[in-house]
Amino acid sequence: ALATRLADQGGVDGLGRVTLYEGLKLYHDKGCASCHDDPKVPSPRLKGYGSLERALAFLDAPDGERFFKGTPLEGLMEPTKLGKDDNTAVANWLMGRPQAADRTERAKKLFVDSDCTTCHNEPGMDPRKKGYDLRIAGPDLDGWQSYEWTRDLLRNASHPRFFGGSLADKDLENAMPAYPDLSPDELDLLTTWLVAGAPEAL
User: Fold this and answer.
1) pLDDT at 161
2) Predicted confidence band at 118 (pLDDT cuts at 50, 70, 90)?
3) What are phi and psi of 114, to 5 degrees?
4) Which of 61, 93, 124, 172 could potentially form a cystine with 107 if both were Cys, beta carbons 3.0 to 4.6 Å apart?
């Protein structure tokens, strides 16, 4: 059964709930699947969310079928044009995954040398301090696809920290809506499901 499979993958919480099953239910009940699982609707596919494989596929082709093709974000991000090894170093650094210190330093240099800072603040910069550009268009990538980053994205993807600076108001209306009505518990369940790889999503 589905609930059993998801319990094996993500366990049961202190209330006896299969957390990934509850997150999947919210994914459908809140209407997320009506965009993300419908091949007729241009929208990023979420299967494997937070995985290195998905991150590398995105950096290599952000306008691919799995990501921004057909959405208001199509054409706004260039592929990194880096090799797999360099992309892996960059992805691991952005997502806060462990790697050798020299690879992290290389990733930081690649991020700057590849002109990523044209559209993104350099990850790790304090938004409250001088040097952080609040007018920059692209999302803040510090902790990209981490639990906290994803939780904040779900709450309001149109915030300037995410995609609000990238799109005109008319395009924001066709992008991911805000979900201020999600309770903290619902938000946690949905986030937990996502960072576990969005099991059962397309």
Assistant:
1) 86
2) very high
3) -90, 10
4) 93
Mean pLDDT of 17-46: 96
**Model's pTM, two decimal places?**
0.92
Residue 50 CB neighbours (<10 A): 20
CA dihedral 24, 160, 108, 197 (to 10 degrees): 0
- Mean pLDDT, residues 170-174: 72
Mean pLDDT of the chain: 93
Residue 80 has pLDDT above 90, yes or no: yes
Sign of CA pseudo-dihedral 86, 88, 94, 96 = negative
DSSP letter, residue 80: -
Residues contacting residue 181 through CB under 8 Å, at least 6 positions apart = none
Dump the DSSP string for 175-202: SPPP-TT--HHHHHHHHHHHHTT-TT--
* CB-based contact 122:132 (threshold 8 Å): no
φ, ψ of residue 12 to 5 degrees: the values are -125, 140
DSSP 118: G
Q: Report the C-alpha gap between 71 and 112 in whole angstroms.
A: 27
Q: Look at residue 22 and tell me whether its pLDDT is greater than 90.
A: yes
Q: Are 153 and 162 in contact (CB under 8 A)?
A: yes
